[in-house]
Amino acid sequence: MFAPVVRLASKKLLEIHQVFYQPPHASGSFSTALNYHIDSPDNNPDIPWEFSEANKEKVKEILSHYPSNYKQSAVIPLLDLAQQQHGGWLPVSAMNAVAKIVEVAPIRVYEVATFYSMFNQSKVGKYHLLVCGTAPCMIRGSREIEEALLKHLGVKRNEVTKDGMFSVGEMECMGCCVNAPMITVVDYSKGSEGYTYDYYEDVTPKRVVEIVEMLRRGETPPVGTQNPLRIKSGPEGGNTTLLSEPKSPPCRDLDAC
Ligand code: FES
């Protein structure tokens, strides 16, 4: 009776392991389907990691925003700074360094880093392109946008191009649905000093490829709406209602009361 139960339990455990574990890519990095850390030659706790001298000053500044007995509140901005410094992703030793600074067990930092999708646990490109995949952007063609990017760059989602320049990820609503579909370009090419996180809105499959090529040439494409007929979030072609000067609200005649 006992042996079959053990056999069944082992089989189930093996199935679970197979679902969660994916072998390394040819490049040596792990699939993002892997949602827990396994030591690898380029990502293990024995690799030394610390904030740069310039960023050590920023760490002090960030910590100064919180009471000294609540240092752990600084975990998100510190992880963000670590990710910027490390070219867009967080090796386990960077997370351990943050845990040491905020004086918590490393697991507390891993919990935060793995919960928020803006933190990457594997390498990304110097330009990480995030396609919004939520309903308004999807209805306006975000799948075609992603397909165009992946095809043009010759990668799968979350893979990095061979030259290390680009990767394509997906994010949920980034809060500019009025300009759907949109992508974000996260620029890790200049470390934490030149880090930018820019929105490109009202994009088309053709336009996102143009944006990629401009970035490749070292140009900075104009951010915001890519539709020349719109001004920011205004209607295409200009206003069609509320065309006259707004009237001031009627004032109450207090003397007549
Ligand atoms: S759904 Fe894409 S920005 Fe909101």
UniProtKB/TrEMBL annotation:
Keywords: 2Fe-2S, Iron, Iron-sulfur, Metal-binding. Residues 219-257 are annotated as: Disordered. InterPro entries: NuoE-like, NuoE_dom, NuoE_N, Thioredoxin-like_sf. [2Fe-2S] cluster binds at residues 132, 137, 173, 177. Its cofactor is [2Fe-2S] cluster. GO terms for molecular function: 2 iron, 2 sulfur cluster binding; metal ion binding; oxidoreductase activity. It holds the Pfam family 2Fe-2S_thioredx. Binds 1 [2Fe-2S] cluster. PANTHER family: NADH DEHYDROGENASE [UBIQUINONE] FLAVOPROTEIN 2, MITOCHONDRIAL, NADH DEHYDROGENASE UBIQUINONE FLAVOPROTEIN 2, MITOCHONDRIAL. Belongs to the complex I 24 kDa subunit family. This is NADH dehydrogenase [ubiquinone] flavoprotein 2, mitochondrial. It comes from Nelumbo nucifera. The lineage of its organism: Eukaryota, Viridiplantae, Streptophyta, Embryophyta, Tracheophyta.
